[in-house]
């Protein structure tokens, strides 16, 4: 029998009586749900957008023939088209074209409209409007005019490209190819759904000609004949294709696009769930405190006939209410955050993974349901343990006065050991599906172990607390020792939030410092000029680059050329960097992590691979590496593995002389300038600019600028993680506030007694401040220790597995010290403020309450 | 003018639209191309050129447009009649002449396939288009061999082969000439309007014996019958004043052949007309001047799809002969608004003199849904 009165007494009454704590609990859950949902929604929008984009690139294709790197010979096209089972073969030339005066390339798709209309009707449909327009206005068009439609030097822009470039039909786009200029007329704008990318469509012959891709194709989209088996067609094609050309499905392409950012996105999601976790922990600590305080109430309930199960349900239902309110608020907040995040930062939250995507947000009911249930579940899970404990309390002893605070503490040695061992095992597991899930699980296990171990730690610390003969101090210590269970709870909530935040701070700082050192190490020259990048249309002629070496003030120069290499048909292409290498001292320009001890086998070329390449393809120093370059088989001998924060898919460095000998490609993307002592860098820069054809798009940077740029990019990428940390800490502070204030408020009678004994108000305040700061300090110290351990997991396990980047540990001492001090101060302040409140009324009379 | 008709313009539109789709939009005309295009010179069509076969069966890539056109009547095993039509168009685009890419869009090819089956009551048709190259689509010079993927029209020994395959329609025919080629106009110079500047080179192969198979909806049936082949190439064909045209080619039952057309100006007035009649057994036909040719509509049919009204039955006069043309079925309308934007009528007809059937052929009616343009 659960009468309304009982509900009032057991659920709504307590909530009303402590509206602040209830509100905080609701907020904690809401923040957790909101962040989780927002991050999830943003990620999903990005993924949707990417698969849409891929779909528009492939149209209705069932299969696609692709080669990484530089594409493949166009003579494959008729052979592929004639393969039995292939109904439509649509050749594509894909170019990342450099637009003059703009950073970032435009994805130019060269297509044969006669073929692609069968696969990409959207491209076709888009122009029907344009055609009929003209038909109407044409009056008496003439044969000649009709043929003007074949203008082969025009481009159809995607909606996003037209918007960003602010171009419309009739305008011109100017591209840089090599250092030449080529312009194409905008003949129309595609509807947004036709091509999602920042891109455009041109005739395939124009693409080959203008962008210097004669004889090459990037892809052939295939539609299979009805009834033919994709597997058979794949097999037939595989026999036809050279090893570097692969058959893919459009779905695989989407995966490739998503894979790059997946680690980043999953880490963000894990962080967002940390917020929910701390929210759950907050519910746990407040409910535990409430359960302790309300022991007598519960005993009375038992006495009047409420069963323990009913009482358990009553207690859980109050947390369900908190969960429902928190989830509802969290959903609203989450959708708002996602919306703002998408419009302000873009689908990758500023990390730079998906340029030119402008996803819209739509929320599915299933997602709302899942996150609501997650919020409610966390609230209930947090309340479960305290509720069970409360239900177990023996009626007789709880009915007695006093002793509401002692809650004896038990050590859980075995649990702690088991959890610790489990954490140690999980942390050494390999990543699952390329994601560092075991790392995250290990962190969670370790944190739980810390919390479970806290009672013993608190007891140990108190036993060894320094003696200090000051009444407030001694009383404070005695108080904490006497209410160890309370103390443990307050300290635990500090530990959970502070350790997570400390670990993130340490990880981010380590990463940032390593990046900083890396940029200094890998940028030994005085000035860098870059024209074009991997797979882009622009580059410098060698002769032009050589003439730069003769500029007065230039001591010597080195050249870089970027290309792509496909090591495995199932993985995205690696970046190949051809540059002047000092074979004996590669560490002059690379940050070597390991070097080979064997000699280069005869016939093999020395190459140096990045850490990501080493991890992804399981290559170590000394190994042999085979790949195809410009149609030739190359045998490389890995001379070493270098640290690289730039190429997430991996990179290979080889000597430029060998590269030129193999490929005949003498083009240059980057020129490194070492200047004479005392040379005027500004004059040299101007002389370089004068050498280039007017208006050539290039990047000229000093190492200082490059360093600043890369750190700025880093900070932009991690801005969102700072935000998430902040929320976790806020929830942690809620925990401290709720814990300490509940405890203090419950001690009104004690304060009364102290005042009777002659304590001044300020002595009581001092005592409370000491209590607060001792608890705070305990939490902060343990939190720091735990945080350091977690940061090690983040640095050496999670990050390494996510990005294949290693970094050196480096702690933000100042930041951590400041935060620690602030937290301790906040704990003290909260204790004092709550104390003021508690003593504000008839404190002295309150003694009587405690008959 | 036949085939320049509907289908050609249609072809051009397809071409235009498609290229519009991907390579450009119309009004672009301008700068970029204007310069380049100014130098494109299409050969003109002059009287006196001697058509030589089989050399001239092949493609003439310098000319702006060219088409190869097979129409015919066949009967299946049960004796039920079917009309068929398979056409290839070539168009020189005038661009990309200096583009070294093997994809350069100097030429474009189109093909159209249609079957008139009275059991269906309306046309079953498909089309295909491609840029020539890579052996996937070509129009060869020197001998008839034009194809897009698995659609083809080519010489095979002393006959021809016509093949086209679509999902619900397959055609695989052998065409065997039973009469010598018929040069249209003056030795193959066919004037299309009052001014000799609109003209084409034009010859026909009437009375082709057809054997082979036609599959409709997966049901393959062997067929036999008689077909008419046209081949025409030109720079500028249609007089600017022409609103549309009517064309018919008839295989006469006695072995003779008759081709006639009229260009219609505004109000459907006759702007120009011509006819060629070759009696059975003779190698030369008789040409008729515009004043000796008359077209008189007898019965109209209105399409419920498009609302366009076509004169599907005619009384035509050639010299002193009066012939009635009656369609195999009324609805032989091609509604290509979805793809090419044109609507025209083209279908199998029977010819009567009085009540007496004298032959069968194909009739083409264009410009009834608005002015036809090339």
From TrEMBL, chain A:
GO cellular component term of the entry, any: plasma membrane
Domain named ABC3 transporter permease C-terminal: residues: 271-392, 726-840
Predominant localisation class: membrane
Domain of life assignment: Bacteria
InterPro entries recorded: ABC3_permease_C (IPR003838), MacB_PCD (IPR025857), Membrane_comp_ABC_pdt (IPR038766)
Domain MacB-like periplasmic core intervals: 22-239
A Pfam family recorded for this sequence: FtsX
Membrane topology term: Multi-pass membrane protein
Annotated TM spans: 23-42, 268-292, 312-341, 361-384, 414-433, 439-462, 483-507, 722-746, 767-797, 809-833
Region annotated Disordered, chain positions: 130-149
Alphabetical UniProt keywords: Cell membrane, Membrane, Transmembrane, Transmembrane helix
Location of the protein in the cell: Cell membrane
The protein's name: Permease
Organism: Steroidobacter agaridevorans
UniProtKB/TrEMBL annotation, chain B:
SUPFAM superfamilies: AttH-like
Top-level division of the source organism's lineage: Bacteria
One Pfam entry name: CrtC
Domain AttH stretches: 65-234
InterPro entries: AttH-like_dom_sf (IPR023374), AttH_dom (IPR010791)
UniProt name for this protein: Carotenoid 1,2-hydratase
Species in which this protein is naturally found: Steroidobacter agaridevorans
């Amino acid at each position: 029998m659960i009468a309304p009165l009982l509900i009032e007494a057991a659920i709504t009454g307590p909530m009303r009586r402590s509206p602040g704590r209830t509100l905080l609990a609701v907020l904690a859950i809401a923040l957790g749900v909101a962040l989780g949902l927002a991050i999830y929604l943003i990620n999903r929008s990005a993924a949707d957008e990417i698969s849409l984009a891929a779909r528009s690139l492939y149209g209705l294709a069932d299969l696609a023939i692709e080669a990484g790197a530089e594409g493949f010979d166009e003579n494959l096209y008729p052979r592929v088209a004639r393969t039995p089972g292939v109904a439509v073969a649509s050749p594509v030339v894909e170019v990342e074209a450099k637009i003059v005066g703009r950073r970032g390339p435009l994805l130019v798709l060269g297509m044969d409209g006669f073929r692609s209309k069968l696969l990409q009707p959207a491209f076709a449909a888009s122009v029907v409007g344009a055609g009929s327009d003209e038909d109407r206005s044409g009056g008496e068009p003439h044969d000649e005019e009709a043929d003007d439609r074949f203008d082969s030097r025009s481009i159809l822009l995607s909606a996003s490209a037209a918007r960003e470039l602010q171009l419309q039909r009739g305008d011109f786009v100017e591209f840089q190819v090599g250092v030449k200029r080529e312009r194409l007329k905008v003949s129309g704008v595609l509807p947004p759904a036709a091509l999602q990318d920042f891109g455009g469509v041109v005739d395939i012959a124009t693409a080959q000609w203008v962008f210097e891709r004669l004889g090459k194709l990037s892809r052939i989209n295939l539609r299979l004949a009805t009834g033919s088996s994709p597997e058979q067609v794949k097999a037939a094609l595989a026999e036809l294709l050279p090893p570097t050309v692969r058959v893919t499905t459009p779905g695989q392409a989407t995966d490739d696009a998503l894979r790059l950012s997946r680690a980043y996105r999953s880490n963000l999601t894990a962080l967002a769930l940390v917020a929910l976790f701390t929210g759950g922990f907050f519910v746990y600590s407040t409910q535990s405190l409430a359960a302790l305080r309300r022991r007598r109430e519960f005993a009375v309930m038992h006495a009047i006939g409420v069963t323990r199960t009913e009482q358990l349900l009553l207690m859980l239902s109050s947390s369900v209410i908190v969960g429902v309110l928190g989830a509802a608020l969290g959903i609203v907040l989450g959708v708002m955050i996602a919306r703002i995040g998408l419009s302000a930062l873009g689908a990758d939250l500023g990390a730079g993974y998906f340029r030119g995507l402008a996803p819209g947000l739509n929320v599915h009911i299933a997602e709302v349901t899942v996150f609501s249930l997650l919020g409610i579940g966390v609230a209930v899970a947090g309340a479960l343990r305290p509720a069970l404990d409360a239900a177990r309390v023996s009626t007789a002893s709880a009915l007695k006065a006093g002793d509401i605070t002692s809650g004896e503490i038990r050590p859980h040695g075995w649990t702690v050991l088991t959890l610790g061992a489990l954490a140690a095992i999980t942390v050494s597991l390999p990543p699952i599906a390329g994601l560092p899930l075991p790392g995250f699980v290990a962190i969670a296990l370790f944190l739980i172990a810390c919390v479970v171990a806290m009672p013993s730690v608190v007891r140990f610390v108190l036993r060894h607390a320094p003696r200090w003969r000051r009444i407030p101090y001694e009383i404070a210590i005695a108080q904490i020792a006497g209410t160890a269970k309370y103390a443990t709870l307050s300290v635990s909530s500090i530990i959970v939030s502070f350790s997570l935040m400390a670990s993130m701070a340490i990880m981010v700082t380590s990463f940032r410092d390593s990046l900083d050192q890396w940029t200094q190490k890998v940028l030994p020259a005085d000035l860098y000029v870059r024209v074009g990048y991997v797979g882009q249309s622009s580059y410098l002629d060698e002769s032009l680059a050589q003439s730069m070496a003769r500029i007065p003030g230039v001591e010597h120069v080195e050249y870089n050329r970027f290309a792509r290499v496909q090591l495995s048909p199932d993985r995205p292409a690696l970046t190949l960097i051809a540059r002047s290498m000092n074979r004996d001292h590669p560490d002059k320009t690379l940050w070597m992590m390991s070097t080979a001890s064997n000699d280069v086998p005869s016939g093999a070329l020395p190459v140096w691979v990045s850490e990501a390449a080493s991890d992804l393809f399981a290559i170590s120093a000394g190994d042999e590496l085979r790949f195809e370059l410009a149609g030739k088989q190359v045998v490389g001998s890995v001379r070493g593995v270098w640290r690289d924060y730039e190429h997430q898919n991996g990179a290979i460095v080889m000597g430029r002389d060998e590269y030129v000998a193999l490929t005949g490609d003498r083009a240059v993307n980057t020129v490194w300038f070492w200047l004479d002592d005392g040379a005027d860098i500004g004059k040299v820069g101007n002389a370089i600019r004068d050498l280039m054809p007017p208006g050539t798009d290039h990047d000229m940077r000093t190492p200082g600028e490059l360093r600043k740029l890369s750190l700025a990019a880093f900070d932009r990428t991690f801005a969102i993680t700072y935000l998430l940390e902040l929320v976790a800490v806020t929830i942690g502070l809620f925990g401290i506030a709720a814990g300490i204030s509940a405890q203090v408020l419950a001690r009104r009678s004690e304060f009364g007694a102290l005042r009777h004994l002659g304590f001044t108000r300020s002595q009581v305040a001092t005592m409370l401040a000491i209590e607060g700061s001792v608890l705070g300090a305990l939490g902060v110290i343990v939190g720091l220790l735990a945080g350091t351990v977690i940061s090690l997991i983040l640095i050496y396990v999670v990050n390494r597995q996510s990005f294949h980047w290693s970094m050196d540990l480096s702690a933000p001492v100042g930041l951590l010290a400041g935060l620690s001090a602030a937290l301790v101060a906040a704990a003290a302040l909260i204790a004092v403020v709550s104390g003021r409140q508690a003593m504000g009324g008839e404190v002295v009379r309150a003694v009587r309450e405690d008959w | 003018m036949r085939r320049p008709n509907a289908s050609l313009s249609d072809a051009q539109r397809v071409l235009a639209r498609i290229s519009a789709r991907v390579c450009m939009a119309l009004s672009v005309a301008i700068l970029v191309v204007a310069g380049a295009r100014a130098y494109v010179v299409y050969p003109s069509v002059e009287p006196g050129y001697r058509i030589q076969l089989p050399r001239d069966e092949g493609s003439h890539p310098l000319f702006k447009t060219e088409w190869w056109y097979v129409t015919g009547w066949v009967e299946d095993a049960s004796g039920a009649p079917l009309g068929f039509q398979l056409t290839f168009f070539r168009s020189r685009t005038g661009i990309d002449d200096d583009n070294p890419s093997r994809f350069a869009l100097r030429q474009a090819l189109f093909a159209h396939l249609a079957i008139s089956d009275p059991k269906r009551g309306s046309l079953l048709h498909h089309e295909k288009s491609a840029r020539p190259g890579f052996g996937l689509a070509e129009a060869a010079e020197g001998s008839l061999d034009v194809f897009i993927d698995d659609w083809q029209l080519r010489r095979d020994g002393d006959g021809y082969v016509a093949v086209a395959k679509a999902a619900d329609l397959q055609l695989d025919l052998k065409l065997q000439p039973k009469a010598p080629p018929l040069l249209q106009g003056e030795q193959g110079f066919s004037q299309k309007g009052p001014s000799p500047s609109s003209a084409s080179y034009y010859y026909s192969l009437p009375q082709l014996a057809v054997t082979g198979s036609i599959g409709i909806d997966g049901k393959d049936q062997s067929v036999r019958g008689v077909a008419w082949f046209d081949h025409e190439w030109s720079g500028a064909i249609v007089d600017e004043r022409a609103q549309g045209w009517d064309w018919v080619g008839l295989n006469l039952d006695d072995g003779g052949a008759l081709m006639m057309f009229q260009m219609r100006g505004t109000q459907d007035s006759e702007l120009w007309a011509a006819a060629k009649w070759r009696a059975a057994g003779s190698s030369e036909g008789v040409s008729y001047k515009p004043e000796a040719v008359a077209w008189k509509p007898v019965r109209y049919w209105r399409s419920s799809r498009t609302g366009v009204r076509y004169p599907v039955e005619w009384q035509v006069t050639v010299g002193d002969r009066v012939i009635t043309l009656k369609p195999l079925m009324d609805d032989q309308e091609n509604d290509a608004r979805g793809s090419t934007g044109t609507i025209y009528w083209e279908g199998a007809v029977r010819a009567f003199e009085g009540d007496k059937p004298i032959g069968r052929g194909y009739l083409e009616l264009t410009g009834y849904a608005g002015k036809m343009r090339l």
